[in-house]
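task queued by scheduler; priority normal; single chain, no ligands, no partner chains; default sampling; output format set to structure tokens
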Amino acid sequence: MTAEQLEAARSERMRQNGHPAITLEDARTWIEETGLCIFLPRSAQAGFTAPTFVEAVAGQRTPEPTLELIETAEQLLVRLEADGVAVRLNLAGQPGDQPDYVVAGWVLPYVYALRGDRDWRRGPQLTGSRQVSQLAVQASKQLEQGNQNAGQIRDALGREVTETAVLRALHELWKQLRIIPVVPEAGQPALWQPLRQRFQKAIAEGASTSQVTAISVLASIYLQAVIAASMEDVELFLSPLTSRSKIREVVRGLAATRQVHTTNMGHQSLYYVAGTLPDFPAVPAYQTSTTYAASYLSATRGSSYQRSWSSAAVEEDESEVFGASVAADVVEASLASVARASGKVRG
């Protein structure tokens, strides 16, 4: 595999190949296949390759997307959210209701396993490792009465509370996956809703999923979205969810159990999920043209992308080193959930 072949295959997989996802069905298929992506393109300085929702809608790489393109992507995302297909995330806790990541509904349990509260029936707390502000607790209680926007919550809590402070409290809760913004239409103020009202089943599943399993599934989803990637790329993509050291240990464990394989490109080792690397044609050592990558794409477009998303799912005793052993029952359960999702996409 050459760098040119990998780049061409990634463009095809991430829909940066001149075929934009401009219809609702196109966007639905892409997000369900991709599983987890960032919303806006990252700058070259971000240091890692990742699928992006806006670029998939554009059908090409767009380092600096126009406001019109972002609005088009937002309109599609609003419709996907209304159907329960996608969920917008704000893992970095940035202001506004624009997401930094977008997750497919079937992948949400694995994200929740790393970011959400295991005791999901319990309200937000003022103390402990998951503490939030007093205003966030009050806002959470207010939302139990029904979906409200920031202005309505401010009015309910008293005039001495500013809308800016309310928004800051809402983002505390959003970052912990306690609530999500529900955007009626692109450009309109978001209504805020407890996540469990729409995704209780996903939350309950995520609360009972181990961190090792969640990291394994999400790492394999990412690797299949980008064909193959370095360890650093995997760590950077998933770092908003958990520590890089845990990600690194899990991926090494998957490699040790041959759930994930490696291939060399120059002096760099790239990881890929076993059985998913495309069959690239052999390229002579002196050949640097992208002709071979183009012929590969025309012959094998989409041939392997619908395979198992999480063949690398592993479980282990939490007191042991991550990835040290594989529990067959957990692997099978993860594969079953992924198979159902893949069947939904193909259907």
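post-processing summary
- Residues 286-335 have pLDDT under 50 and may be disordered.
- DSSP finds 14 helices and seven strands in the chain.
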